[in-house]
Specification:
- The complex is a heterodimer of chains A (76) and B (232).
- Chain A is mainly alpha-helical.
- In chain A, 87% of the residues lie in helices and 0% in strands.
- Chain A is built from three helices and no strands.
- Chain B is mainly alpha-helical and 232 residues long.
- Chain B has one domain.
């Protein structure tokens, strides 16, 4: 008797487990893939920093160009 | 530091665009996935281009009104920076389309080449390229300024059908066209997500101000170079 109950329990658990797996699988399929790992391990901050460095460099360059032209205009 | 607040504003907005554009929350969409963030960069190139072309035509009309050579220089340089932004928009769009239309949707090259938005944008930018060819073909300065000002008005009017009207009438993979909601959800101004708006609208202003800034630098240089021609 005990053995049979354990058997059914085991079967029930395995079905439940499979159902869970299936639902996870379908959940993953219904959800568009995003760069969540990039965000969870913090690597996205590297991209943001790199882009900010480029932006700051670009603006410093244009700013200096602006100053140079202003100086030329004054000297004229 | 005279009147340079808008240059600083442009810098601050673009810092915000990059930080919020990469770290901010965006809607989860199929096919587009994270590439929806290109909205803050690719689309802004076109918006900046339109503003620069508008500035250019305003100065062309002003030139025709009073024949002040200074306005011809303004119109020419704003158009030049506008073409630069158009080419950047085209290049970024090609990369984006490669990963969303070709790779993920399996569109053929033929289907992509038939895109009305792509053809229209190419026509628009090429018409502006012809503006510079036209300018270069005149030796007489006054004639060059007058004819190219008239041509600039024609070039701007061609923007209406080529990038604003036809792509909205014809079915297309590109967002904003009728039928584009089948499999390519994105920039319909009606349903664009409020999280995207928070970054997108400031980004348009930031990129546009940067374009205008570069334009003014080119103008100031040329004004200095052509000083003897300006009656001032």
């Amino acid at each position: 008797m005990n053995k049979i109950t354990a058997h059914y329990l085991q079967r029930f658990c395995s079905i439940l487990f499979l159902a869970c797996l299936g639902s996870i699988n379908s959940f993953a399929q219904n959800q568009p893939e995003m760069a969540d790992t990039m965000r969870s391990n913090g690597k996205i901050y590297v991209v943001v920093t790199v882009c900010l460095v480029i932006l700051i460099g670009l603006f410093l360059y244009v700013w200096r160009l602006d100053r140079k032209i202003t100086r030329l205009e004054k000297n004229q | 530091m005279r009147k340079s607040w808008w240059k600083i504003l442009s810098f601050l907005i673009l810092v915000y665009t990059i930080v919020a554009g990469f770290l901010g929350d965006v809607p989860r969409l199929f096919i587009l996935n994270e590439t929806i963030r290109n909205l803050y960069f690719h689309v802004c190139m076109w918006m900046a281009m339109m503003v620069l072309f508008t500035l250019s035509i305003i100065y062309s009309i002003k030139y025709l009104g009073n024949n002040n050579y200074r306005y011809d220089i303004y119109a020419k340089n704003y158009a030049a920076v506008g073409v630069l932004f158009g080419l950047l928009g085209y290049a970024t769009g090609a990369i984006w389309a490669n990963y969303t239309w070709v790779t993920d949707q399996g569109q053929s090259l033929g289907a992509v080449l038939k895109e009305p938005k792509l053809i229209g944008a190419a026509i628009a930018v090429l018409i502006y390229c012809a503006y510079f060819v036209l300018r270069g073909s005149f030796l007489d300065m006054d004639k060059r300024a007058r004819v190219s000002a008239v041509y600039n008005i024609f070039a701007f009017s061609m923007l209406f059908p080529s990038i604003w009207i036809i792509p909205r009438l014809v079915g297309s993979l590109h967002p904003g066209a009728p039928g584009s909601d089948s499999g390519n959800p994105a920039l319909n101004f009606k349903d664009i997500d409020s999280r995207l708006r928070m970054v997108f609208y400031p980004a348009v202003i930031g990129w546009t101000l940067l374009g205008v800034w570069i334009g003014t630098l080119k103008i100031r240089l040329e004004l200095m170079k052509e000083k003897s021609l300006l009656h001032e």
